[in-house]
Amino acid sequence: MTYEDFPTFIRSSVLPRQKEKPNDIRLDGELTGGKRRSFGYFCYKGRVWKVDEDTRYEPLLLAFSAAEIGEDPFVVSDTASGKGQCLHLREELRKRQRSRSKHMYIYSK
């Protein structure tokens, strides 16, 4: 299922998962390791974006809090491979993250 926007995706998929497993830091419940499996999809700026399940809750919730007050939480950039695009938190949101690492893996579909 592809959600119409990011806040709907968070409310419908992410928050229920976090409520179900409140001690998890990532969508997949793991502590480490990269995964290419998708957790879900949402529309943003006319495109469909895929959220990988190794994404952490913290950056998603920071983005959600900004989106809920009408701010655009994301910056679109090219992936490291240059073969696609990904979303990053805006710099002011990124500074609020406890970790310097991105921990948010959202790619254009």
Output the number of helix runs: 3
The helix/strand order is EHEEHEEHE
**Which structural class do the helices and strands define?**
alpha+beta
Q: Number of DSSP strands?
A: 6
Taken together, the total number of domains comes to 1
**Morphology call:** globular
Multimer state: single chain
Strand count, sense and barrel status of the largest sheet are: 4 strands, mixed
Helix content: 25-40%
- The fraction of residues in strands falls at 25-35%
Short characterization:
It is built from three helices and six strands, in the order E-H-E-E-H-E-E-H-E. 28% of the residues lie in helices and 26% in strands.
Description:
The protein is of the alpha+beta class. It has one domain. 28% of the residues lie in helices and 26% in strands. The protein has three helices and six strands. A four-stranded mixed β-sheet has the order 1-2-3-6. Strands 4-5 form a two-stranded antiparallel ribbon. Helix 1 packs across helix 2 (57-68). The longest helix is centred in the first third of the chain and has 15 residues, at 6-20. It is globular. It starts with a strand and ends with a strand.
